[in-house]
Amino acid sequence: MNTLSYITVDVFTSTRFEGNPLAVISDARGLSDAVMQKIATEFNYSEVTFVLPPEDPQNSAHVRIFTPTMEIPFAGHPNVGTAYVLGQQAKIFGKPVGDTLRFEEKAGIVEVSLKRSGGKVVATAIRAPQLLTIGDTIAAETIARCVSIDPSVIVSTTHAPVFASVGLNFAVSELNGLEALAAARPDLAGFQGAAGRQATNGHDFSLFLYVRTSDDPWHIRARMFAPLDNVPEDPATGSASAALGAYLVSLAPDRDMNVRITIEQGVEMGRRSIIALDVVKSGGIVTDVVISGSCVPVMRGEIGLQD
């Protein structure tokens, strides 16, 4: 039997069995697109990554990211976790591993910094591959139908529900408190209706809900739902967090800012995750978003490809 090695890690946590699980295939040479998709569907994690040699030798690797239903151009926790796994190796496709990595992805080049303790990689930080883009606004009633809540709990003081992206598109919406956030339950028909009406740049309708207070506006609690991708709820979503953080900083009145944002996600699932964002704004434009977090190894094994 031909076999394929994999490693799983929990991302955006230092506690095993919390955070967001990720499977990494650190050498995916020879796999077809169809086989990659089947493996991702079999794991049924939010994402699985497949690492290939870079097309440009100046880069570290070519990384492909699959949900249970489709390939996507970029995501936060797969990059953080993949960098953590590759950072444990002495070499990547024959090239020594340093303190920085560059991943080729559909959304562009993703730069990664490795954070070490006692010589071992314990956390990684990635730079979002694209500048912030804002899409169409979304009716509060559409958001409410998706997650079975009353439209009155949706807050539009800072912004209306809207699409935002720094590499992958999400609908983002603020709620009026933790009680409303805890009450959210994904409704498949609501998501199907939203995806049919809204333009999402080729990505299924995925919804990032959040709560924050005026006392501590840069500490955010969030939940993310993507049932159309067979992800009823995601414990940690770095790409959505980055898009939201960039958007909120863009709306702040200061023209120049350097903000550290903490997003806590997955609490309602029993998989608490902590996502750190560093957002830079210069001359009124968000110029840089860095997503960072810790990881912890969980499993390693082999996948049988043929009898």
From TrEMBL:
InterPro entries: Phenazine_PhzF-like
Residues the record marks as active site: E47
PANTHER family assigned to the protein according to its UniProt record, in alphabetical order: ANTISENSE-ENHANCING SEQUENCE 1, PHENAZINE BIOSYNTHESIS PROTEIN
Protein family: Belongs to the PhzF family.
Name of the protein in question: PhzF family phenazine biosynthesis protein
NCBIfam families associated with the record: PhzF_family (TIGR00654)
Protein origin, superkingdom: Bacteria
Name of one Pfam family that matches: PhzC-PhzF
GO molecular function, one term: isomerase activity
GO CC aspect terms: cytoplasm
Taxonomic source organism: Rhizobium anhuiense
